[in-house]
Write a structure and sequence with these properties.
This protein has 95 residues and is α+β, with helices and mostly antiparallel strands. The chain is 43% helix and 20% strand. Strand 3 and strand 4 form a beta hairpin.
Length: 95
C-alpha cells in the first residue's frame, strides 16, 4: 500500500478541518468530546466495527467523555488511502 503524496496529504487535511498532522509522525489525529462516557463508548464501538471491516485499526484512547484518535498505516510507513477513508467516515460520525 503506497503512502499518500504530499499533495494528497494536504488535500486530506483541507477536507477534514478538525484533523491535524500528528507531531513528528506521518499520521493524522483528532480529539473528540461527547456528552458523557456512554456516548464516547458508543462512538468507539462504531469505529471499532468499522476498523474490523476495513482491517485497519486506529491508535486511540478514551478518558470519560473524550476520545483521541490517530491514524497511520504501519505497513505503508505513513498515511495511506486507508487512513483517508477511515478519517472521512469517522468525521461523518463525529459530534
Amino acid at each position: 500500500m503506497p503512502k499518500l503524496s504530499a499533495t494528497d496529504r494536504q488535500a486530506l487535511l483541507a477536507s477534514l478541518p478538525h484533523w491535524r498532522e500528528a507531531p513528528g509522525r506521518d499520521a493524522v489525529t483528532r480529539d473528540l468530546a461527547f456528552a458523557d462516557f456512554p456516548a464516547a463508548w458508543a462512538f468507539m464501538t462504531r469505529v471499532a466495527l468499522l476498523a474490523e471491516r476495513m482491517d485497519h485499526h486506529p491508535e486511540w484512547s478514551n478518558t470519560y467523555n473524550r476520545v483521541s484518535i490517530t491514524l497511520t498505516t504501519h505497513d505503508a510507513g505513513g498515511l495511506s488511502d486507508r487512513d483517508a477513508a477511515m478519517a472521512k467516515t469517522i468525521e461523518a460520525w463525529a459530534p
